[in-house]
Amino acid sequence: MTKRDYYEVLGVSRDAGGADIKKAYRAMALKYHPDRNPDDAEAEQKFKEAAEAYEVLGSDDKRARYDRFGHEGVAGNGFQDFSSSQDIFDAFSDIFGDFFGFSGGGRSRRGPRPQAGADLRYNLTISFVDAVKGTEVDLQIPKEIECDTCSGSGVEPGHQPETCKHCNGQGQVFQSQGFFRISSPCPICRGTGQMITHPCKKCRGNGIVQETKSVKVNIPAGVDNGSRLRLQNEGEPGRHGGPTGDLYVVLRVEEHEQFQRQGQDLITTAEISITQAALGDKIQVPTLDEPVPMEIPRGTQSGRSFKLKGLGIPHIGSTRKGNLIVNVKVQTPTKLSKRQEELLREFAELESEKNSKKGKRGFFKKAKAES
User: Fold this and answer.
1) How high is the pLDDT of residue 161?
2) Are residues 308 and 354 in the same domain?
């Protein structure tokens, strides 16, 4: 018999997200569940068909092969053939528990459900220069690790855990309500199905111990205040075979006394004299490395900005850099020697004569008239 398109089976579009696919499977599994449709061969067939579709579309890898090659792309590539409803319950026991809060009518899962380890956060303060250039930091992280004495089992070496008598090692207790069997973790063994009568002396039966671990963190050039670095598998260990959590390093960048940041550009200020501004000059501009030369054109006004390309902050993961923006500030002298004052007054008189020819009053005459 020709198989139907899996998207058609679940009633979702080909661009549906994982959550939508899971939701659609939940609805079909609930509708055609064998406990709801006893001795209904057609419902059982649709129950299996929905499970087969979800088994493929619920996996990113299998779904990609199916989208490209159709049913042939997933046949024999880790594809599970559901010959009975029991196979479905066994394959998706955790999913049925998440969906419905019951065992699904299949075999009860023995032992506790794997739990992912907690993620950790570390707030790290770095200098402005280290943020721009990148650096490597050794962190001392207090964290939980698997006990090396009992290998995380919580049982003293030489002993074995005993089967919980309350749940007969199933880790769950059941209560029937209509055609559903409601399950809940065993209150005696807390869902483990086992009782530790001889706990490990080092970890006191917890399977984990506290320890400070040294972690090396590579901070790439160009990070900014608030940047977050993820170190996989450096968080808390998982329980009962669950995956280890991650470590997130959140950066705080200190301010710099001479530079500010605007995106990938560095901003700084260069002070020049009135003669440099009027006559022009070549000055040395500070950078985060060595100073570089910059031309000051004749007649430069205070507040003018100059752009030096490629002397800014690197783009993370790229060789490209922003620019260095130099804001020029013209200094007005507050103390003059007698000779300097004479020269400035002479300059003012020349300016006054020049402006008079153009019908303008010089600065000093204008000031005198206003007084």
Assistant:
1) 86
2) no
